[in-house]
Each structure stands twice: as structure tokens, then as C-alpha cells.
Amino acid sequence: MTFTAQIHTETETASFSTSHTMPVPSEVVATAQPFPETPTAIAELQQQFFGFGSMILRLEQKPKIAVYAQKQRFEIVDWGINLRFGDQGEIAREMARKFLALFGKAERDELSDAERSEWTRIVQSVDYQKFCAERSPFRYMEGELEKTQARVFVVKWHDGSSVVIDRSTAPELRVLNIRERFSALVKFGEGDKVMALQSVSILPPIRNAEETWKSWPVRNS
Amino acid sequence: MIKYRKPPLVERAVGVYAVIDEEKFQRRLQGWADKLRQEFPHAETVTEWELKLTEKDGMPVMDEKGHKMTLRQRFWQTNEKGVRIRCIQLWRDRISFNLLENAGVQHRFEDLDQMTKQWLPKWAEEFDATGVSGVNLEYVNILSLQTVPLFATVNSINLNKLLTFYAAMPQQVQAIMPNLHPTVVPPYDFQVAIQGSVKAGSTETPLTFHAKLVGERKKTGVPIALRLTLSASTIQPKRLIPVLEATKELALTHDCAVRGFESLFTQEARQSFEPYDVHSTNSY
Prior knowledge:
The complex is a heterodimer of chains A (221) and B (284). With 221 residues, chain A is α+β, with helices and mostly antiparallel strands. Chain A has two domains: 4-133, no CATH class; 136-214, CATH 2.40.50.140. Chain A is 28% helix and 29% strand. In chain A, the strands form three sheets. In chain A, strands 9-8-7-10-11 form a five-stranded antiparallel β-sheet, with no helix packed on it. Chain A has a four-stranded antiparallel β-sheet with strand order 1-4-5-6, with helices on one face. In chain A, β4 (64-68) and β5 (73-76) form a beta hairpin. Chain B has a domain at 3-18 and 107-276. Chain B contains seven helices and 13 strands. Chain B has helices at residues 22-36, 109-126, 159-162, 164-167, 169-176, 243-264, 267-272; strands spanning 3-4, 9-17, 42-50, 53-56, 59-62, 67-78, 84-90, 94-100, 135-144, 190-200, 203-215, 225-233, 275-276. In chain B, strands 3-6-7-8-2-9-12-11-10 form a nine-stranded antiparallel β-sheet. The N and C termini of chain B lie close together (10 Å). Classes of the chains: A alpha+beta (221), B alpha+beta (284). β1 (41-45) of chain A pairs parallel with β6 (67-78) of chain B.
């Protein structure tokens, strides 16, 4: 089995693009014929996650792209996003913009009837619970670094629960020694997974009950 | 090993495959682009289409549905004149490093090797690719008046003298048809694949060599040209090796591709590519 067709050398890519680009209509054709109401073709975009900055949308299914060759445009089906040929790199950004715009209006209860039905379709097509969990603000947490492994940290929170955190998610934890207590601002995702961790401070160890009792302030009278 | 100063080589590319979680890939794509920006400032998104055609009344018709599109990220480095000379391409499951001609200056294997060693481990770390399935090296040679002037005119390429595959053909044809004076006519296309493995100590590495000759699309006023792609691959499905191992396998695939090059071009052709001693600085 060989994979020669899959690297895409530049010279090969050039001919590939030529043979698969949609036909460009001349001016005459464009004006003489009305724009078609139905798409020339519908393609499935081989992608389910659309990231922009720290935000990511997980779609339940791969989105459909309707191609309108004569208009030189394509549309993301059910999203109401219409882009020019060549703007494929903008798909993730435009989906994020659309989602956030409707999300904001929905929060403010400002959706028009048309927007409301569009928002309903979009919400049904994305993992909305995951989006909301990831959008949650940072929380102040205290915990203890239990152990470190090659790619993860194991942390025990102040409530006794333990979590495994990717090193890449919380590089600041490298400053801690094993069994050291710390405080940090933590962003939790779906299933209480740590999505981000910042502003680490080292805390003193918790004294045992006897020490605490002895250090308790007393009346000197 | 003999190397060549003027091979008809126009592009070198190496591709590496890995299993990467899609969410992780999309989350970290922007961070990766930021890291590349200084050295590869020109980013673009390229669409790959997988189109579905059917036959209707004896004519090919594009189906309305069933097509697939995939987005590929490209990061380019250009020379002072703005000509694209180096590229890193990214898919969810693979990365490739491409070297193109820089104002007539031939690129070297060492350049590709260095580029791979510099960026492959960074890519693996960025996207948590713990292992890869091998490397696939491709050398694209263009045979035309420009690259093989001793063997070509505007309208013809003397394949009998250029490629060993065609060198013996006229005699063979004459043996079959003794009263004819045969000429090779289009299509000139051929391809061959050889599969085996290389054993070094206790390690056995799978190796596939593939050669493919196709005609370049004829454009008005442009001389006839053929494209000969030589590739050597250690990739196999379900194979998983450490990233560091993959960078070592690049030299193995290069060696294989050069041997393929030497076996496909005639002695006369190789002589015209200006062979020289391995200890010099340039290379095929």
C-alpha cells in the first residue's frame, strides 16, 4: 500500500486545484441566466470541531456545504452563513461569530422570529452543554499536588476529590513540590475536567488539630 | 554515494502520519499557527474535494450530494522576491514539509532533513502525537526542455536516451515487428511499486518504492513536459513508531529514492545531471 497521492506536493496540488475548481461563468452567462435557487452540489465538510481562540464548537454531525457555482459562493447549511469561493478558511470564524451573536441575543431575549428558528436549529446541531460548561468563569480553588507523571499532574482538591490534569493545560503547576498546597484560578469544563489553570500561589501546609488548638488566641486575664 | 548538481528535481516533500484527536487538533491549531508565523508568515486554507460523479445517458454528471470537502492548512515561507520556497502543510492526521526551487538554487536533502528535525518534534508535542506510522518521501522531477535540455526540444523528449525504462523498448518492439522503425507515442505514463523491508540489527523497517511518470498538462506555448515522481515510504497501516525514529527513517527513504533515481535514468542522463563526490556540499 502506498500513500503517494496524499502528501500533496505543490506541483501536484496545482493541477489538482485546476481540475476540481468549479467553472467560472462569463459575465454574459451570469447576467443572462438568473441565479439558481438550488445548489450545484452539496458537500460534507470533514470536520466536527470548529475552534476560534479558546472557544470550540462541537457539532453533532459534520456540516453540509451547499455550493452555488454560478454565484461563486457557498453556504453552510442551517447556519445561514454565505461565503465567497476562496473564503473556506473563514468557516470556523464565521460559525463562531454567528453562534455568539445569536447566543448574545438569546440571553438578552432579543431574537426575532426568524432568528429564533435559526438559533433552535443551530443549538440542536451543536453540543450546547459542552459549550456552556467551557464558557463558565474561572473559580478560586485550593488543593494539593499529589504526584506528577510524564504527561499529567494529579491534584487533590480541598474537598478531597482527586483529578488528573494534562501538563499542557496547567504548566504553572510545575512550580510546586509534591504534597505542596496551592491556590489557583481554575476553569472547569464538561464533567469537571480542568480546562485551564492560572494564578498559582503556594499555600502553607494545614496544621493538625492539636497545633491549631495550641495556636488559638486565649484571654490573658 | 554519488550526488548530482543539476538533477531535474523541482520539489522535495516528506509526509508523516499520526492519530490526533480532532478536538485537540482544532483547539491547538491557532497556537501552532502562531508558532510558525515568524518563519512561515503566509498562511492559507486549501480545500480538497472528493467529488462524486455518475453516468447519465452515457455522460458523466456530478451528483447533487455525496461530495466531501476537507480543509488543509498551509504555511509558506517566501524568498526576498516573494516566491514561495518552503511550506508546512497540516491535516488533522498528518503533516508535510515541502521544499520548492529558490530562484534557480537547488535545494538539498539536508535542507529537508533539517526542516523535519526542527519542526516534526514540535508538531508532535503541540498535538500530543505520541507516535507516527513512518515517513513518506517524495521527489518530483520535471522532464522538459528546461530541465533536461540535452534530451528535449520544445515538442519532444528523447525518452529512449533519458529513461532506462524506454531505452530497451525500440529493440524489443523491433524484435516483434522487424519491418517497422517504431517511435514512442503518448501516453508515456507508467508506474511501478516495489515493496520490501530493510533489516538493521534487530529492527526491520518496511520500505516501499514507487515511481510514476505522467504527462504534464499541455499549455499553449509551453514546451512538452513529463513529471516523474519518486517516492519512498516506511508507512504502513497500524505501524506506530516514536517521532525521533521517524526522523531517522527519512535518511533511509532518501537513500531508497536516490537509488530509484539512478536505476530509472540512463548513464548518459545521469552524466548530464553533473554527478560529483559525496563530500561536496550540494546533493541530489
